[in-house]
Write a structure and sequence with these properties.
Helix content of chain B: over 70%
Number of domains of chain A: 2
Order of helices and strands of chain B: HHHHHHE
Strand order of the largest sheet of chain A: 2-3-6-5-4-15
CATH architecture of the largest domain in chain A: Beta Barrel
Structural class of chain A: alpha+beta
Number of strands of chain A: 15
Shape of chain A: globular
Largest sheet of chain A: 6 strands, antiparallel, barrel
Structural class of chain B: mainly alpha
Oligomer: heterodimer
CATH topology of chain B: Arp2/3 complex 21 kDa subunit ARPC3
Radius of gyration of chain B: 17 Å
Number of helices of chain B: 6
Order of helices and strands of chain A: EHHEEEEEEEEEEEEEE
Distance between the termini of chain B: 36 Å
Chain lengths: 302, 174
């Protein structure tokens, strides 16, 4: 028996586990190389070229599936939101009653101010930039996909260039400013949220007129900071921050003036700092975005 | 692997990828949510081997990149490597070990979170390392909770590798 080879019968096709090391390395090597090629081409030409059009077509084909997935998940999300809201219902109701009383007073004062403003503008033949919401129409769209990754701050919405969405279009929810369109395909668009570290928006304090830049906060993903506010300007806790919508000769802000962003929750300033340290609690809930309004500029009346 | 098993695994990966981008990605507690797709790819790799794991990871990543309009190939690269590694682990050290799904899932989670952060930084979308580090424990807990149920589901759907990969030839040297 010594030195005798005993052959076991083979049972069926060899599975992938038993493939040779060479074949295994070739397969993974090809896949990694393919992924790297795709990354390179997609990164260099994200909005044009054959890879972008293939991605656009594939996204259109997969769109019904993502919409179906979204609809399947929606009831569960609603149940969770309902249960979550029950926990805070009593305190929310009290807070909202107080806010309602305050806003009623404010609305009356604002109406007087708006009437006066209109008259003065008419007298001066004042030419203004685009304003929110009068000069824009909102395209309502469901959020159909979100990138994987704990730090990803983008969503994909179910409207695209065929619906009139353009690159850099501002996106809002019923609560306030959300972000801007950073990639557009025919039937879908990618929206980068304001909580993304690469997005910032010029903003101003409605009460004091102090201007600065609102961007991602460091404390948590859902807080924002109102940066670049000079120390000499006044910003108070509770002030409302809106988009500034500036215009300077040929340049203009991507966002119209007056979209609510959030409320100031803390103000501080250190002797060594150049600017105030202002934290803002956003009006929009970035963690629970189910539907958005993509703002499309109305054509100007002659 | 039979054609039927392959088809069932492909369908499972496709459905999970769609549900991940349209439903599970919106769940976030303590900075992170469950990555069902990664756990599924790891389970497929453990049960079906490194090559199947790598191919499943590549396909799943491609679906994610297409549906989220992201940089094509980025998620594919991460999931291909995670699937390949998990498959090799299942074929060698983790073979027939009860803790293999948990260990492979945890290692793949750490790899994908840090790998994704690195890739994003290389592609010019830097994210604060602090955000990633804060979210990592939550991601680990979420995926660890999913590891065994998903492993059982994938085994039920796709079966496991037959024991026919033992050495077919032995030489007695007594």
């Amino acid at each position: 028996m010594l030195g005798v080879n005993l052959r076991r019968p083979a049972t069926g096709k060899p599975p992938s586990r038993s493939t040779s090391a060479f074949r295994r390395r070739v397969v993974v090597g090809v896949l990694v190389l393919l992924a790297l090629v795709l990354i390179t081409v997609s990164f260099r030409k994200p909005d044009s070229g054959p890879v972008a059009s293939a991605q656009s077509s594939a996204a259109t084909v997969l769109r019904p599936f993502t919409i179906a997935g979204e609809r399947v998940a929606q009831p569960f999300r609603d149940v969770y939101a309902w249960a979550d809201s029950l926990l805070t219902a009593r305190s929310d109701a009290k807070k909202l009653r107080q806010e309602n009383a305050m806003l009623r007073q404010q609305a009356i004062q604002n109406q007087f101010a708006a009437n006066e403003n209109d008259k003065l503008k008419a007298l001066l033949a004042f030419r203004d930039g685009p304003r929110f919401p009068d000069d824009y129409k909102g395209l309502a769209a469901a959020v159909i996909a979100r990138p994987i990754g704990s730090y990803a701050q983008d969503v994909v919405v179910a409207v695209g260039s065929n619906d009139g969405v353009a690159l850099d279009a501002p996106v809002v929810t019923e609560d306030g400013f959300l972000g801007r369109v950073t990639r557009v395909y025919s039937h879908s668009a990618r929206v980068t949220l304001l909580t993304d570290e690469q997005l910032a928006v010029s903003a101003l304090d409605v009460k004091s007129g102090a201007s600065g830049i609102v961007k991602h906060g460091r404390a948590s993903a859902s807080t924002l900071i109102f940066d670049r506010v000079p120390k000499k300007l006044k910003v108070s806790v509770g002030d409302t921050i809106v988009t500034a919508g500036w215009r300077s000769s040929r340049l203009a802000s991507l966002y119209p003036r007056g979209i609510p962003i959030g409320r100031v929750t803390s103000v501080g300033q250190a002797d060594t700092d150049l600017w105030k340290q202002v934290q803002v609690q956003p009006f929009a809930d970035f963690d629970r975005v189910d539907a958005v309004l993509v703002l499309v500029r109305k054509s100007r009346q002659p | 692997m039979t054609v039927a098993q392959g088809a069932r695994i492909s369908l499972l990966v496709f459905v999970v990828a769609i549900m991940q981008v349209s439903a599970f990605s919106s769940i976030s507690i303590a900075g992170a949510g469950p990555d069902l797709l990664l756990v599924t790819v790891v389970a497929v790799a453990l049960l079906r081997g490194a090559v199947t794991g790598a191919v499943a990871g590549f396909a799943a990543g491609l679906i994610v990149d297409v549906t989220t309009l992201g940089t094509l190939g980025a998620t594919s690269l991460l999931l291909t490597l995670a699937g390949f590694w998990a498959g090799r682990y299942g074929e060698t050290t983790g073979r027939n070990r009860a803790h293999a799904p948990l260990v492979a899932t945890l290692a793949a989670t750490v790899f994908v979170e840090i790998g994704g952060y690195t890739l994003d930084a290389l592609l010019g979308s830097p994210v604060g390392a602090r955000s990633v580090m804060l979210a990592l424990p939550s991601a680990i807990v979420w995926n660890a909770l999913l590891a065994y149920p998903v492993f059982a589901l994938v085994r039920r759907v796709g079966g496991t590798t037959e024991r026919s990969d033992r050495a077919r030839e032995v030489e007695l040297l007594v």
